[in-house]
UniProtKB/TrEMBL annotation:
It comes from Kyrpidia spormannii. This is Enzyme. The lineage of its organism: Bacteria, Bacillati, Bacillota, Bacilli, Bacillales. Keywords: Hydrolase. Its EC number is 3.6.-.-.
């Protein structure tokens, strides 16, 4: 039975985890339902605090997230997590790690965890992750966490969609810094050296503090913490620093800037999606398209000339999300 957009919005806002899971699948599949639903949900999103947790594979991001969830549940928060693993072709909570974690939190309606892999288009992953953050936000999870492997461009894009960016490293963090995409050190608001129960962590904390001090000019100075997810150490400290950063964002006006930037990103994404949709529709209605391409290939027609013609004739209302029945 098809249901109205309003009904889906209602189910998602009431925290119906099956409806949320279905909506996330639509987002992953870039199904038309996703756009309609997101447009209806975005106005009620915005209440959640968004945290990005990034870092190389194996440093303990999932373990830290798990500890954070426990802490936050104890404080009465509802927590939504989207774990992005661009190396995995699986989605929909099919990852083993997820299943293991789900066992702990499966019966808790205050926790929602979902993994996303590379299904969908290249570059689509960052967009889908942002959409899922909006969904979880609208569903009433007041803390939402995006867990990403901090090595690629899409992770850099995702961190722009959150309020506080945490970069997790292992005890041999000095070496791992090399692995990270350039620019990721600069966007970290908090550094966590995990596995502090193992040798080397103290040295890594000192090294990163030194790097932070070198780079620091003014404003927020990212704290560098030591933690041990397996022993449950340092997690309260981490949450305290997140709250301190949240206060800083509010008081400095930086939070407002980040929110506006997020809106601008969303606008830009939709502009691109509309242009793409309009172009594909236009192209499908041009039986002579191959001939035009050949003319350009043979140098008989200029590329810019073709682009001008296309831009003049595109119908940008195509691909616009519509309400109604899903
Ligand atoms: P992720 O890939 O960054 O999400 O890392 P995981 O959370 O999956 O952890 C990778 C491995 O490190 C697992 O075997 C964890 O049990 C282990 N691990 C996580 N945190 C700690 C820690 O604080 N100390 C130690 N010794 N091992 C840890």
């Amino acid at each position: 039975m098809p249901q109205s957009v309003e009904r889906w919005v209602e189910r998602i806002r009431s925290g119906d985890s099956r409806a949320i899971a279905r909506a996330i699948t639509w987002v992953e599949d870039e199904a038309p339902e996703a756009a309609a639903l997101l447009n209806a949900l975005r106005p009620v999103a915005g209440g959640a605090y968004r945290i990005g947790l990034t870092g190389p594979p194996g440093v303990g991001k999932s373990s830290l997230t798990d500890r954070l969830i426990r802490l936050l549940r104890g404080l009465g928060h509802r927590v939504g997590v989207v774990a992005v693993d661009p190396t995995s072709p699986f989605t929909g909570g099919a990852l083993l790690g997820d299943r293991v974690r789900m066992v702990d939190h499966a019966l808790d309606p205050g926790v929602f965890i979902r993994s996303m892999g590379t299904r969908g288009r290249l570059g689509g992953l960052a967009r889908s992750t942002k959409d899922v953050l909006d969904l979880l936000d609208a569903a009433g999870y007041d803390v939402v966490i995006a867990e990403t492997v901090g090595v690629g461009q899409s992770e850099l894009d995702v961190v722009h969609a959150v309020d506080t960016v945490i970069l997790a490293l292992g005890p041999a963090g000095g070496d791992q810094v090399q692995m990270l995409k350039a620019g990721i050190m600069e966007i970290a608001d908090i550094f966590v050296v995990n596995k502090a129960d193992l040798p080397g962590a103290d040295r890594t904390v000192r090294l990163i503090r030194y790097m932070v001090d070198l780079a620091h000019r003014r404003g927020w100075r990212p704290p560098v913490l030591a933690a041990s997810a397996s022993e449950g150490r340092g997690v309260e400290d981490l949450w305290e620093q997140i709250l301190r950063h949240r206060t800083y964002l509010e008081e400095s006006g930086e939070g407002r800037k980040r929110r506006l930037r997020r809106v601008e990103d969303a606008v830009w994404d939709q502009v691109l999606a509309r242009v793409q949709g309009a172009f594909l529709q236009w192209k499908a209605a041009r039986p002579d398209w191959e001939r035009v391409l050949e003319e350009v290939a043979n140098g008989r027609r200029g590329l810019e000339d073709v682009v001008d013609e296309i831009l003049h004739s595109l119908d940008f209302s195509a691909g616009k999300a519509e309400g109604g029945v899903l």
